[in-house]
Amino acid sequence: MTFSKGLPHFASGIVVKGFGRGSKELGIPTANFEPHIVKELPEEVGTGIYFGWAQIDEGTVHKMVMSVGWNPYFKNVEKSMETHILTKFSQDFYGRNLRVCMVGYLRPEKDFTSLDALVKQIYEDISVAEKELEEPVYLKLKSHKFFCTDKDDVKS
Ligand SMILES: Cc1cc2nc3c(=O)[nH]c(=O)nc-3n(C[C@H](O)[C@H](O)[C@H](O)COP(=O)(O)O)c2cc1C
Ligand SMILES: Nc1ncnc2c1ncn2[C@@H]1O[C@H](COP(=O)(O)OP(=O)(O)O)[C@@H](O)[C@H]1O
Ligand SMILES: [Mg+2]
């Protein structure tokens, strides 16, 4: 098994505001990256839906799914890079640092005939990602040094 072109891809940046549709319209919040992180994506990492690992500040490394592109259903003008972390949080984390490692490509972005159809497809993406991320080749990247924290260095 080989990685798709340009993967794994590591990115780190601040979580900024999007259109607020993720939570309100879809019930699936996505942490949007600041624009320069989107611009720094290498050409071979094209638009589409990805899965991988995500960490807020120096916290736990969680499973994630990510959408990269213009959200054809909503016809966005700005390209976005949005991460849905597969863990429920009691608080928002705007302004905090998000580190991601994109490890696998799922599918291209699509338009849908209804919001329900889009949401159903995202749940399917989540279910595939949950399973795929248990594969040893992907699991290994969860403990990549990119995610290392210096928590252990501050022993007293
Ligand atoms: C796993 C995943 C798959 C997605 N797939 C699509 C898609 O195929 N087409 C699309 O228009 N938007 C897709 N989206 C993006 C949603 O439309 C987007 O997250 C939503 O508009 C929230 O935007 P906001 O952060 O600006 O509120 C996907 C999002 C996720 C997390
Ligand atoms: N599991 C989660 N995955 C991603 N973001 C989450 C999650 N739980 C809470 N959030 C918060 O919700 C925000 C995203 O919600 P969303 O409705 O997509 O708004 P926006 O359009 O501003 O991105 C994130 O920036 C983050 O602060
Ligand atoms: Mg969002």
TrEMBL record:
Checking InterPro entries in the record gives: Riboflavin_kinase (IPR023468), Riboflavin_kinase_bac/euk (IPR015865), Riboflavin_kinase_dom_sf (IPR023465)
Q: In which pathway does it act?
A: Cofactor biosynthesis; FMN biosynthesis; FMN from riboflavin (ATP route): step 1/1
**A GO BP term, please?**
riboflavin biosynthetic process
The answer to keyword Ligase applying to this record is no
Q: What class of enzyme is it?
A: transferase
Q: What job does the chain carry out? A: Catalyzes the phosphorylation of riboflavin (vitamin B2) to form flavin-mononucleotide (FMN), hence rate-limiting enzyme in the synthesis of FAD. Essential for TNF-induced reactive oxygen species (ROS) production. Through its interaction with both TNFRSF1A and CYBA, physically and functionally couples TNFRSF1A to NADPH oxidase. TNF-activation of RFK may enhance the incorporation of FAD in NADPH oxidase, a critical step for the assembly and activation of NADPH oxidase.
The Riboflavin kinase domain, residue ranges: 4-134
Enzyme Commission number(s): 2.7.1.26
Q: Which reaction does it catalyse?
A: riboflavin + ATP = FMN + ADP + H(+)
Q: What is this protein called?
A: Riboflavin kinase
Query: Gene3D superfamilies given for it?
Result: Riboflavin kinase-like
GO cellular component terms given for this protein = mitochondrion
Extract the GO molecular function terms from the UniProt entry: ATP binding; metal ion binding; riboflavin kinase activity
Q: Source species, please?
A: Thrips palmi (Melon thrips)
Provide this UniProt record's keywords sorted from A to Z.
ATP-binding, Flavoprotein, FMN, Kinase, Metal-binding, Nucleotide-binding, Transferase, Zinc
Which cofactors is this protein said to need? Answer: Zn(2+)
